[in-house]
Design a protein that fits this description.
Chain B: GO terms for molecular function: ABC-type transporter activity; ATP binding; ATP hydrolysis activity; molybdate ion transmembrane transporter activity. The complex is a heterodimer of chains A (233) and B (368). Chain A has 233 residues and is mainly alpha-helical. Chain A has ten helices and no strands. In chain A, helix 3 runs parallel beside helix 8. The longest helix of chain A is centred in the first third of the chain and has 34 residues. The radius of gyration of chain A is 20 Å and the shape is globular. The longest helix of chain B has 17 residues. The chains are: A mainly alpha (233), B alpha+beta (368).
Amino acid sequence: MIDLSFSPAEWTAIRLSLKVALVAMLASLPVALAVALLLARGRFAGKALLNGLVHLPLILPPVVTGYGLLLLFGRRGPVGAFLEQTVGLVFSFRWTGAALAAAVMGFPLMVRSMRLSIEAVDRRLEEAAATLGAPPLLVFLTVTLPLCLPGVIAGMILSFAKAMGEFGATITFVSNIPGETQTLASAIYSFTQVPGGDAGALRLTLVSVALSLTALMLSEALARLTARRIGLP
Amino acid sequence: MNQDKDRSLEVRLKTPLGATRLDIGFTAGAGVTALFGPSGAGKTSVLRAIAGLLRPEEGLIRFCGQTLLDTGAGIAVSPHRRGFGVVFQEARLFPHLSVRRNLRYGAVFSQARGRPDSAEFARIVDLLGIAPLLERAPRHLSGGERQRVAIGRALLAAPRLLLMDEPLAALDENRRSEILPYLERLRDETRVPILYVSHSVAEVARLADQVVLIDRGRVAGAGPAAETLGRASLMAGASSRERGVVLEGRVAGAQPETGVTTVEIAGARLRLAEEGLAPGAAVRLRIAARDVMLSLRPVEGISALNSLPMRIAGLTPLDGRTMEVRLEQAGGLHLLAHVTTVSAQALGLAVGLAVHALVKSVALDHFR
């Protein structure tokens, strides 16, 4: 029998993971929605390139993504230095960096789910809304968005689940600092590196499995519920 | 609504249409104007251009003296600012909103033109008979119910002009006859001009005041409904089952005890199976060519109530098996009859021959 009571350090890792995942999901939501709209509806040069860039984190080794973030968003990186000077936002070796890494890794999943659901919206309904006097922004808010909501919610939850499990990019970018950047995955990794850490690793593994599974099931259920509520088959 | 203003719609369009081109110009006034023609003639494209959903290569659209499209001057008012209601072939109800919220959708945006109040809402709900459906979701409605809600939704946006794109085409015969009376009430009870796209002679004959004939992207004729439809029946492309004549006459008398009404048309009298028409009332009849029988001599002992002496004005083979016979009377009455080629030869039908046209009273479609 293993001891199922968590140590304070383990609690910290769980709480941090939840915070990082939540922030990553919420911060990437508007950007992902905009990019999904652009990919679903836009006609412009470089659309294939944008699509490729969005999906890159899915294909690249996470360590490459993490190193890329370090180069760009590190204190000496061009974007990181700029953000620190202008708005005082620091990513390197902070939990904000872990959230950024998680957001980037979950981004393709979020965009993909949203894009597919936007593409599935019947544009003839948008035409009908326009002939009823609705200006474009309100057509989007009252017709397009409600009709693609199942995909938006599914995308959010997928990105959250991905963020909860992110490891490679996070540890490369912001290292593994207990209480600051040590998320669930990093904590499990640390436990496996020290003698006698098996019980801790197992406890956190169970937490990780439970959280991911819950998120996936919740995503399915929410998508189905929303689809039914908005009258889709 | 300011009914005294000039409410004419002026349309000129030139744009590619499939393999051919749309090159069209017409003016529509108050009442119901039908854009009539075979499928693929370009009617729907014209309607979409008027609604602002299709940008033609070249075009000018004016309504009430306001320019909505002028490609030469770079003017193109967007659909939501035109104030034109559209009823599409498929109802296009919003699946995520209840019937009530579908109906209310346009009202939010039509404040500038006088938002329909609750009395107006009740009136239109009543006009279309959709009161029992208000709380339902669109997916639980039948095709006919959906289309009535779509009509109500368009009306409740307080449109300046109502565009209807074959609103009955997606429905079966029963549903069509369920909705047609509502469309008639709509025509008679609202002041909104209606542009009605259809390829059905029966619908157009029943609803339209004015008809614009469209064939292969061009205007083939325009004018008052009965006159224009008479020509339309002769138009190439109308299916042979649909061919026939549309006639306008007046109720001459009724025999309530028999349930038969006599209608006078161009000096001739036709009897139709109908009661309750007031003497003197205008009636529009449609006589399908396939419902007219020909006989060389007056026939007795037959159930058909109408036997009209006519003269053959023309004979056209339709296909190998049937002939179309054009019939005239000195008073101006004209009919079309379809007979088999075998019968035409057996009777020796030829131009100038006197015949009797037999029409069953129950086969007459009459409107208004």
